[in-house]
Amino acid sequence: MTIERILVIGAGTMGRQIAMSCALGGYTTILQDISEQALAAARTELEGWAASRVAKGKLSQDESDRALGLLTQSTDLASSAAQADLVIEAAVERLDIKEQIFAQLGQAAPAHAILATNSSTLPSSRIAAASGRPELVCNMHFFNPALVMKCVEVVRNEQTSDATVEAVTAVAKRLAKQPVLVNKEIPGFIANRMMGAINREALDLAAAGVASIEDIDTTARTALGHPMGPFELMDLVGLDVVDFIAQATFEETGLEADKPHALIVEKVQAGKLGRKSGEGFYPYKG
Ligand code: 3HC
Known about the structure:
By secondary structure, the chain is an alpha/beta fold. The chain has two domains: about 5-180, NAD(P)-binding Rossmann-like Domain (Rossmann fold, 3-Layer(aba) Sandwich), CATH 3.40.50; about 195-275, N-(1-d-carboxylethyl)-l-norvaline Dehydrogenase, domain 2 (Orthogonal Bundle). It contains twelve helices and eight strands.
């Protein structure tokens, strides 16, 4: 299965950086979104990112020009899908919307095209049937910031073919990522389950007044060697996303421990979503 052309659906935080990773990997890449504004914002961010990499000497001008040249944008899903060997869907985390997208892709994408979802919460078996090609469907889960984080969780569902897993794994390697294979559709896969456990402990320690959020973060960085403390990381991921992941996990497991933590619910209700809203556990400027 040769993959040369990739369509990334959704120009949000994840989709735009996944698309740029694909272009840097030498793939002809289309970034598709229903919003012109989101596409324009994505282009501006990616051009800025590439320029700063060139300025730092970490990317040559030629590599930057080549990647930005391979990356085009579109608001038209059907015509973009018709050109794709692999689709990576990174749209909003709503089952009904993903079902619609996968049904459209089933019609519009070439018969050989693999349809992957970046979803961290929805197992691909939920949307595979809508596509009419379940053997070509899996999760391909990237991490934020996707241009930096190496891991890609490749999650197979019961119908995913070995050829699909192999092809998606090969793409992740060509993006200079580190693919890991998740053999069972467990809620949260590997990374979000471990992150959920750390977050839960950190939130409980803060809620019990054991230590300040600053000191809990400092401990994670300086005692455990984590690059960021759990509160800094939740602010980066987005507290609405943390809330959504916990809720989705709870709905699957029914375990009280997986329920969104009261401190997260409080922040989300106050509109404090982390970096993207200017305030979460910490304030952010600009
Ligand atoms: N976009 C693109 N590049 C970024 C970036 C961003 N948002 N943030 C940082 N970078 C780049 C910088 O440009 C810099 O590149 P360089 O080394 O080539 O100059 C490099 O990352 C390091 O950045 P900084 O020096 O500014 O800061 P740090 O050394 O603290 O690194 C970090 C920042 C990479 C975000 C690091 O703190 C980190 O790894 N944090 C943990 C992130 C993490 O755990 N992510 C997973 C979240 S869970 C998830 O995504 C799952 C989902 O389902 C919710």
